[in-house]
Structure formats: structure tokens, C-alpha cells
Amino acid sequence: MNTQSAETTLTPPRVGPAIAPLSRSSMAQWLIFIITAVLVLAPALPILLQVFVAGPLYERDWHFTFANIGRLLGNEAIGEIALTTLAFAGLTTVIAQVLGVAAALLFGRTDMPGRRVMGDMMMWPLYLSHLIMVVGWLIVYGPSGFLTQAFARMFGDAPWNLYSIPGMAIVAGVSQAPLAYLYCLYGVARSIDPTLESAARTCGAGPLTVMRRVTLPLMLPAIVTSSALNIVIAVEMLSIPLFLGRPARIDTLSSYLYLEGIGASNPQHGMVAASALVLVVLVGATLMLQRLLLSNGHRYETVKGKGTRPAPLQLGALKWPLFTLAALYIVFVVLVPILGLVLRAFTSYLTPLIPVWQVLTLQNFKDVFQTDAYMRALWNTLIISVAAAGLGTLLTALIALVIQRSSFPFRRTLEALAYSPRMVPGLITGLGVFYAAIVFAPFGWLRDSIWILVVAYVMATIPLGLGAVQPSVVQIGADLDKAARTVGADWITSMRRILLPLMKPALLGCFILLFVVHLKSYVVAIFLMAPGLEIMGVTMLGLWENGAAGVTAAFATLQIVMIAILLIAARLVFGVKLYE
């Protein structure tokens, strides 16, 4: 009896299976997943909700309806605007791809003189915003532009008209050509097996035939990828359709959303949200088509295990004619609009009828530096760019580490979430963040705060940052962090002590890339503007619309100088070149 009592006392009670507590590494991975999901989904859900709400979300007295969709489908103007958007985006992409692919072939695969210098200058429009580029083009090639007036005086009316879909597409295509050039140059043009081209040359093919029959077909994956990105950018582009399309009563979806959401005295929020979904569908369809076209990308592999050294194609007698064409493009399409913009900033009026030295002035810059709102826009832009670039670099680095270097069960879902903002145009991102700050109470503190712009910028550029950081994680051998794990280090410690230090060059490059993008960005911020939250891009947009061309040019010149200083410092001090 006593024995039984003792056994009864010492035997532990039977309970269910023990649940292992989350480790700090698992908690960190879940935290990264939740932050990413909130950043991506919080702006998207309110836009979808607004489509089915009769009035604006901030009225709180919601009445659910399908009328917004009905008005959208029954609105003939929306259909015409959508077709105009597709025509503009398609023509822009064709121009950008032709220019970019031609530049990649000439500067990357031939012995053309001056190809390195012209290749660097080819990239300049990519560093500047579309707003700066279109202002430069208008100052030089607009109806009252400097060269337009000079041409008209000598030969009659100028043969070009920027206030048309082809005119819009030319300016946009030139602005986006560097993207096609970048992808084609470093994706394929410098890594094609030269034996394929040599074989064609031994059969008697000339340099142009080799490029057309051998090099160009092998560049198809890079051409498809850059084409998809250029279509997406053209669909969401605002300043070029707004400045060049509106005078001719040509609207695209982005300019329509801007005018109905910001410019209208009584915005139709439901129609704006429904129209925004059309933009998202167009962008999503483009990206899905890209994936479909590249599903058999292995067919274009030319570089195998054996090392190859691409040799430049000899142009022979075509060398100097092609050099002349390339130089004329660089001078009149890239340099002249930028120089015209800078010159306009230092003049009270720019016209060939009056010598430039008679109208030189610093008044435009005085107006910028002596106006509180303008100086606030400048400092806000710098603060937002630094904060968003820093937070974006940190977040994308952590996302990349979870995706590539963890056993987190939802890492593929995390990757899909991180890249999904590519489907959402910047204008819609800003609109979604605006709605999220109204609908979701935890986001309420962001309203009328500079941090609402930082959050919007970070969310919009997660795919860009991840694309810059993730390759560096893949290139680092997994044995290094595995060795740390074998001696007792957990995931956090091995990432902090081993992976992140090895990723420093990539993180620095990512920060500089994001800083440049944020410095020239303005579309994301349009729906988030409030007194005290001015930024340079939106301020320039308003100044140009109000006819203050000189102050706009001064603002743009200051932005060009800031970007130039950053890029030069990045190359000289840190050895970072953004397009290598």
C-alpha cells in the first residue's frame, strides 16, 4: 500500500505533446514577413474597398455599391483613354528598345571610337526624372523652344510637334532607352560566346549581318525583359503625358487619375479607384506576358562552363558613319535638352532673338533659396531620400537573407510579396497609402507626417532593392554560415556576423541606387501632399503648370547637381558604379 502511494506520488501527470517555443530567429523571420506583408497589402486593400464604396472612405458612412464599376464600363472616355495609354506605351517601348538595343550593340560589341564615353552619356536620362527630361525638351524643342524658334527663322515651321502621341512617345522613349541599353549591354551583349560570331564571319558575313543574324537573336531574353519594364513605366508615366498630352487634349490613364484625383474640385473617388485597377491589370498582364515569353529562356544560353572572352566586332568602313550617327544622337537628344534646361535656369528668358548674355540672371535661384516652401521641399526631399534608402536597404537585405538563407516555411510567399509591388504603378501606391492612413487606425499617425512619404517610397521600391541585393546573397557560399551554425550560432548571429559584412558592397550600391531613385521620384508622393510635406518633384510640377519656367529650371538644375555629386562621390570614394 505504501509502495503504491509512493509510485502515485512520484509519477508525473500525463499531458498533451509539448509545443516548442519560437526561437528568436523564428520570431525575427516572422517579423520580417509580417512587415513586408503589411507594407504590400495595406495600401492595396483600401483601393479595392473604395471601388465598392459610393463615397470617399474618409466619410466613414460607407454605402457599398457596384455603381463605380458600372460607370467605368459604361464610360466611353475611359475606353478611349485606355487605348491611348496602350498606343503611347507601345510606341514609347518601340522607340526605347530600338535606341537601347542599337546602343548596346554599338557601344558593347563593336570597335566604334568613343564608345565608352558615349555609353556613359547614354545613361544620363536614366538618372533624371521624366519631369526634368520633358521640361528640358520643351525648353529646347517645344512650340516656343529655343531650337524650334531658331529652325523656324531659318527654314519656316519646325517639322516636329511634341504635343502629339508620337511627340510624347519620342520624349518618353529617349528617357527610357537607357534601361533597354543597360539590360541588353550587361545581360547579353558583353557575354555572348564570340565563337558564334566568328563562325559567321568566316562564312563571309559582314559586321551588320553578324549582329542581325547572330547577336540580336541571342539578346531576345534581355530585349523581352527590358520591353516589359519599359511598357510598365510608360503606362504609369505622368509628367510627359501631362505636359505634352493635355495641351492637345490627349489623356492617358495616369494623367486622368491625376486630374480626377488631385485637380478636380470634387474628386470621384470610386471612379479613381476603379480606374486605378485598370492600370494594375495592364501592368500585371505585361509582367505575366514577360514570364510566358521567357519560360524557355535556356534556349538562349551561350556561355557554358568553358570561359570565353568576347571580342569586339570590327566595323571596318562603317566605323565613322556609325560614330557620326551616335554622336549626333548623344548631342541633340541627350545633351541639348539638359544644357537647355540648365541655361534656362540662369536666364530670365531664353530665345534665339535675344543674345543669351543679355538675359543672364540669378533671380531664379534667389527665388528658390528665399522662399520657405521651396527650401522646405528641397530639405524634405533629401531627408526622405536618405531615410527611405536606408530603411529600404535594410529591409530588402533582411528579406533576401530570409529567402535565400533560412528554413522559414513561407519564404517563397515572402519572395512573391516582395516582388508584387512591381505590378502597382507609383501613382496607385501613393493613393493606396493615402487610403490606408485613413482606413487603418494604426496608420493614422502617419497622416500629415513626413514618414508617410518614407513608408510609401520604401514600399514602392522593395522589388528594386531586392533585385540589387539578392544576387549578392546567392553569390556567397552557404558553407560560411553553415560553419557558424555548427559551432552554435543561431540564424540571427550567423547573418549578422558573417553574411551582412560580406554584403557591404552590395548594400552600399543598393543604398545609392535607392537614394537616386527617391531623389528624382515624385509620382508616389502626389496623393500624399499636405502643407509642410512639399518635395522637389511635386513642387516643380506645380511651378511648371503655373508658368514659372525659370524657377522650375532652377529647381531641376539643383536636382541634377545633387544627383551628379552623389554619383561622382559613389564612384570615386566608394568605387560604386550603378550600372555595373
TrEMBL record:
The keyword Cell inner membrane applies. InterPro entries: MetI-like, MetI-like_sf. It is found in: Cell inner membrane; Cell membrane. Its main location: membrane. The chain crosses the membrane at residues 30-53, 81-107, 127-151, 163-186, 218-244, 270-289, 322-343, 377-403, 424-444, 450-469, 506-530, 550-574. GO terms for cellular component: plasma membrane. It comes from the Bacteria. Residues 82-290, 378-570 form the ABC transmembrane type-1 domain. It is a multi-pass membrane protein. The keyword Oxidoreductase does not apply. GO terms for biological process: transmembrane transport. Keywords: Cell inner membrane, Cell membrane, Membrane, Transmembrane, Transmembrane helix, Transport. Belongs to the binding-protein-dependent transport system permease family. PANTHER family: INNER MEMBRANE ABC TRANSPORTER PERMEASE PROTEIN YDCV (PTHR43357:SF4). This is Iron(III) transport system permease protein. It comes from Nitratireductor aquibiodomus.
